[in-house]
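Propose amino acids for all 100 sites.
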C-alpha cells in the first residue's frame, strides 16, 4: 500500500510503500467502490487478497484476487466462506469489514 506523507503545510512530501507479501487480507464488500479500491491497494502491496461480496465477480476484476460470493448477513454462509478461505490460504492476517 502507498500512503502520502504530509508536511505541516498539508502538502505531500513523499510516499511510503508497504510490502504485505506473506499476508492474507480479507475484504468484505470488495466487489465495487471503496471495497474494490482497498482490494487493489492490497494487491499493489503484494498481499494475498480475498474479496467477498454479495455480487458476482466483475468481469474486469484483478485476476490475482480470490473472489468469493458471500452475503455477510448470512452467518452460516460467512462461517463456511471463512473456513474455505482458511483451508486455501491459511490464517487471515488483515480483515477489512467494508460491507454495508
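Proposal:
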Amino acid at each position: 500500500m502507498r500512503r502520502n506523507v504530509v508536511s505541516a503545510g498539508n502538502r505531500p512530501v513523499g510516499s511510503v510503500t508497504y510490502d504485505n507479501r506473506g499476508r492474507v487480507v480479507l475484504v468484505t464488500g470488495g466487489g465495487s467502490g471503496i471495497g474494490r479500491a482497498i482490494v487493489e491497494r492490497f494487491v499493489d502491496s503484494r498481499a494475498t487478497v480475498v474479496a467477498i461480496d454479495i455480487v458476482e465477480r466483475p468481469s474486469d476484476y484483478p485476476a490475482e484476487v480470490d473472489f468469493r460470493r458471500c452475503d455477510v448477513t448470512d452467518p452460516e454462509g460467512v462461517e463456511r466462506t471463512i473456513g474455505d478461505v482458511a483451508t486455501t490460504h491459511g490464517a487471515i492476517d488483515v480483515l477489512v469489514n467494508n460491507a454495508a
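Helices lie at 33-44, 75-89. The mean pLDDT is 90.
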